[in-house]
TrEMBL record:
<comment type="similarity">
    <text>Belongs to the type-I restriction system S methylase family.</text>
</comment>
<keyword id="KW-0255">Endonuclease</keyword>
<dbReference type="InterPro" id="IPR000055">
    <property type="entry name" value="Restrct_endonuc_typeI_TRD"/>
</dbReference>
<feature type="domain" description="Type I restriction modification DNA specificity">
    <location>
        <begin position="63"/>
        <end position="203"/>
    </location>
</feature>
<dbReference type="GO" id="GO:0009307">
    <property type="term" value="P:DNA restriction-modification system"/>
</dbReference>
<keyword id="KW-0238">DNA-binding</keyword>
<feature type="domain" description="Type I restriction modification DNA specificity">
    <location>
        <begin position="263"/>
        <end position="426"/>
    </location>
</feature>
<dbReference type="InterPro" id="IPR044946">
    <property type="entry name" value="Restrct_endonuc_typeI_TRD_sf"/>
</dbReference>
<keyword id="KW-0378">Hydrolase</keyword>
<keyword id="KW-0540">Nuclease</keyword>
<keyword id="KW-0680">Restriction system</keyword>
<dbReference type="Pfam" id="PF01420">
    <property type="entry name" value="Methylase_S"/>
</dbReference>
<dbReference type="InterPro" id="IPR052021">
    <property type="entry name" value="Type-I_RS_S_subunit"/>
</dbReference>
<dbReference type="GO" id="GO:0003677">
    <property type="term" value="F:DNA binding"/>
</dbReference>
<protein>
    <submittedName>
        <fullName>Restriction endonuclease subunit S</fullName>
    </submittedName>
</protein>
<dbReference type="GO" id="GO:0004519">
    <property type="term" value="F:endonuclease activity"/>
</dbReference>
Amino acid sequence: MSEALEQSDQQEGYKTVQLGPREIPIPDEWDIVPFDEAIELNPKYDKPDNGPFDYLPMDAVDEEKQTIEYWTQREKDDCTTTWFKNGDTVYAKITPCTENGKITFIDGMSTEVGSGSTEFLVFHPCEGVIEERFVYYLSNLPEFRSVTISLMEGSTGRQRVPSDVFKGNLTIPLPPLPEQRRVVDILSTVDEQIQQTDEIIEKFEELKKGIAHRLLDNGARSESKSDVVVGPLSIPLPESWELRRLENFPTPASSVVQTGPYGSKLQKEEFTDSGYKIYRQANINSGDFEKGGQYVTEEKYHDLEKYQVVPDDVLLTRMGTIGDAAVLPDDARKGIMDYHLFRIRIDPSFCLPEYLSGVLRSSRIVKHQIESFSHGAIMDGLNTGLINELRIPVPSTEEQREIVDILSTIDQRVSIEKERKIELKQLKRGLMQDLLTGKVRVDTD
């Protein structure tokens, strides 16, 4: 990335390539080629008679990272008609994976050829025409993806990109091979920085998990402990701590725990594109309270006053990933929770919301109770009665603050790294747009 990038004159020396409904200016010396002259779709590889073969399920590809999280193995008779090799790009063809950008570069496969979900399209680079990773980056170009999305066929919820999209009229911009290689080098460097940032985030999150377990079970101070019995477990707890049922926590609300509205009270037909936000399980799992685009009108918001959430409410997941928790931040939009969440509203002079959220996520005492409650109840989820029965370890508010401050220090470092990742991804998007269209040229000398 150290080489100087020269800004091209877009008035002269440019021609246009048609990508779907859009015309994109590209340098005159670039080629405009049919897709199938540069990229072989779903190649028919020779397969050895004996397996097993590496197999790539659809959910093994992380949409956000565009990485392969795991492989399985299958015998030849159990494989699909989708085959690929290292150096190929796989492109999800079914909704919503296509729209979400489930695309990945095949690398590090342990078998000569591998198989995968039939919902993947395989892009194989034609040797001497296009670089392997250039195919991957070109597949991520918004204009390219928009063409495939706009031409999807099938019933709502099961739409697919037909193979015909890549035959005949679809053309792609193609720079000379030396320029392709420099573009790949630059974009790969940014990808490596994003990956390194991800690894730093993961290390800090693992560090926080370990420290949280220690603090929330043993406390931030050195003091003697006595055993408390929780179900079949006998667990040492600092002697100054109290073990109190959640329903007996002081609260400014009519009850400590409130579940979200049942389906009959909040139906999909009542969702709007703006207004008062509906908070969902995904907000808690990700810690991102901006995520999601479902809202209700002001009238519906007031009708569902019982289910409104406000800053410092602790939100707890009741289905799926049971027992995940987060505190609604001060800058969160006004809104309500959906049926898959509990709202826990407590008096902060007795228990800090951030402390309670941490205990619900990480305390061995609490996790044991939640796991015992949820055993056999995964489909229906937890109910308010069970959550009210949770026995929560409660130190003094001073010690709660010490624990929260220690964990917040790690959170701040994670936030810094996440901001850096956002900046890197924005840089990558901008570079892709500029380099893959020739708006910015690279020095190949």
